[in-house]
Write a structure and sequence with these properties.
The protein is mainly α. The protein has one domain (3-183, 194-412): MFS general substrate transporter like domains (Growth Hormone, Chain: A, Up-down Bundle). The chain is built from 19 helices and no strands. The protein has helices at residues 3-17, 19-25, 31-37, 42-45, 47-70, 73-91, 96-110, 112-124, 130-141, 143-159, 162-182, 197-209, 211-241, 246-270, 276-300, 305-317, 319-331, 338-362, 369-412. Helix 5 (47-70) runs parallel beside helix 8 and helix 15 (276-300) packs antiparallel against helix 19 (369-412). It is globular. The N and C termini lie far apart (49 Å).
Length: 413
């Protein structure tokens, strides 16, 4: 692939992957004003975030087989069309119940932008380049937590919260045009892929049975769930507990997200000397240690605003290593089922993220402790899955080597 064309393809894939984060982050500063305008509470508005997560989980599992059956671009464009209509519905919502419903539909459309890029990276680039390309996607993806809350906060302050969803709809229209014009079809339709429920479930079962996928997808999803716990808890922690304004919250969000962007590009450089597996293990372990300090600080109450931002910056910077390496390693064994594998990978991330965000609300006690606790538990479980998975894969590899050696001995006789 030519350099210029390669750059355009990576840019479009990165923008597609950023649709969901923008849809999540851009309206977060507007929770108080949404609650006021729709005559409800912030807790009720938060259900629109939960419905989005649920929609993404369900949608990814559906669109994965569709991408394998009908090619990549057609389901992608249909999903963007649904996203545009649902975004307009969100902007016109007369009640919080309507907003929750339209957010679910918006997620069903947006989820294709999460699944298709991973599958297309697997289609278009050699496996040894996947982690590097995904790191470039994270660079684009990482802009969303920096721009989205900041832009969202200023839009809400000047024009009200509904303008956020109008802007998202317009952006999706422009992105659809770019997909039609410049994004190549990386894999054509395959009539051999069945869309019967039993066949789809069998396909997902085959993906899960691959120990490499189970290990790295599970570890990556659990570690990434700490980010969702942060998303769920940070509006209250910063705007209510520490008293920052909507604009200041957007700035803090941007500073913390800058660490994720920088680390994703540092990951690209470190891949010259270390394997994806080595970097993933080291970063999840580092994340666990930082999370432990964060929890002790919130429990003891000695963390001020700046020290809290600093620890969250370091903690979430680890995500710049976790996502590209876990995704590349999980997707590596697949070619024919890349769409299904990508969908299952994304669904696992959203399921874990949804649970993490829900637990933050469930154990809410007016402090930052629930957020910090869930963040620590997520990376602790991710590290445990990774270490156990490594042992299992090493054991399987030794058995395969022993079986091969036995076969060679028998062939000599």
């Amino acid at each position: 692939m030519q350099t210029n064309k390669r750059s355009i393809v990576i840019l479009i894939l990165g923008l597609l992957a950023a649709v969901c984060p923008f849809s999540i982050d851009m309206y977060l500063p507007g929770f108080p004003s949404i609650a006021r305008d729709l005559h409800t509470t912030v807790d009720q508005v938060a259900y629109s975030l939960s419905s989005f997560f649920i929609g993404v989980c369900i949608g990814q599992l559906v669109c994965g087989p569709l991408l394998d059956r009908f090619g990549r671009k057609t389901p992608l464009l249909i999903g963007l069309g649904l996203y545009i209509l649902a975004s307009i519905g969100c902007s016109l919502s007369p009640s919080v119940e309507a907003l929750i419903g339209f957010r679910f539909l918006q997620a069903l459309g947006a989820c294709v932008g999460m699944v298709a890029p991973n599958a297309m990276v697997r289609d278009l680039f050699p496996p040894e380049q996947n982690a590097k390309v995904l790191s470039l996607l994270v660079l684009i993806l990482g802009v969303s937590p920096i721009l989205a809350p900041t832009v969202g906060s200023y839009l809400i302050a000047t024009s009200g919260w509904s303008i956020v969803f109008t802007v998202l709809a317009v952006a999706a229209i422009l992105l659809s045009m770019a997909v039609m014009r410049w994004l190549p079809e990386s894999r054509g339709a395959d009539a051999g892929v069945s869309l019967k429920p039993t066949a789809i479930l069998h396909g997902y079962k085959q993906v899960v049975k691959e120990s490499q996928f189970a290990t790295y997808a599970g570890a990556g999803a659990l570690a990434s769930a700490s980010l969702f716990a942060y998303l769920a808890g940070s509006p209250f922690v910063f705007m209510k507990l520490y008293g920052v304004s909507e604009q200041q919250y957007g700035l803090i969000f941007a500073i913390i997200a800058a660490g994720l962007i920088g680390s994703s590009q540092l990951n690209n450089w470190l891949l010259r000397s270390y394997t994806s597996s080595q970097l993933l293990t080291a970063m999840i372990a580092t994340q666990f240690l930082i999370g432990l300090v964060l929890l002790m600080g919130t429990v003891s109450g000695f963390l001020g605003l700046y020290s809290l931002v600093g620890l969250l910056f370091l903690f979430l910077s680890c995500q710049g290593f976790t996502f590209p390496n876990s995704a590349a390693l999980a997707m590596a064994p697949f070619s024919q089922r890349a769409g299904s594998a990508s969908a299952l990978l994304g669904a696992l991330q959203m399921v874990c993220g949804s649970i993490a965000s829900a637990l933050v609300g469930l154990f809410f006690n007016g402090t930052a402790v629930p957020m910090a606790t869930i963040m620590l538990i997520c990376c602790m479980l991710g590290l445990a899955v990774l270490l156990v998975g490594h042992k299992r894969m090493n054991y399987q590899a030794k058995r395969e080597v022993a079986a091969q050696q036995s076969l060679e001995i028998l062939e000599k006789f």
